[in-house]
Amino acid sequence: MTQIHVRARPGDVAESVLLPGDPNRARRIAEEYLEGATLYTEHRQLLGFTGTYRGVPVSVQTTGMGCPSAAIVTEELARLGAQTLIRVGTLGGATPVVKPADLVVATASVPNDGTTRQFLGGAPYAPAASFEVVEAAVRAARKLGVPHHVGLVMTEDAFYASTPEHAWLWASRGVLGFEMEASAIFLVAAQHGLRAGCLTACSNDIGDPQLVPDDVLAGGVDRMIRVALDAIVTLAGG
């Protein structure tokens, strides 16, 4: 049976899946990093591809922007047999410690979003990445010599609501940056007993409407993707 939004059947999706929000990034990963990648869905522009990386089957599945869409995709990937889900995207930095294009490996997310709140009925909860995924990502970053930070992020719904004051407050509580999907991915994965992680490249400082220069950000995204793929190989026993 195909899923409602991710129009794929069991067997189309690999056990290890990268989750970019942007369909163009999904296509780029498939074309530039995977071998033998084939398109298994393009419904609603939630592009999904499966190929291999260093002999390990890997899928790349678009989530769209925000927790509602990411939660739907994560749920349907679980039904399709995925076992390890790693978000690969961008975040706004909350602290000057996180430089433009730096890699941030999330250990957990402050769930400042409506999707996890609805799932949980408002109950307190700490959406966290799987230790194995964090460990594999950090090992890969160190091996590749990629500058990185490991710690807490915040997941939010309203992209333009964040202010420098908001960023400073949460930075004082240990938050490295703000993004829009991790908490829902972590929660839904946990509900299904799946491994999940979140890797992001810093695209801007909160309160600064200017993204980092395209070439700088592209370099950070490339490093993030390579770290994520190497982490998948490690998690697969390679």
UniProtKB/TrEMBL annotation:
Its EC number is 2.4.2.3. Gene3D superfamilies: Nucleoside phosphorylase domain. It catalyses: uridine + phosphate = alpha-D-ribose 1-phosphate + uracil. Keywords: Glycosyltransferase, Transferase. Pfam families: PNP_UDP_1 (PF01048). Signal peptide: none annotated. It comes from the Bacteria. Coiled coil: none annotated. Residues 17-216 form the Nucleoside phosphorylase domain. Belongs to the PNP/UDP phosphorylase family. This is Uridine phosphorylase. It comes from Deinococcus aetherius.
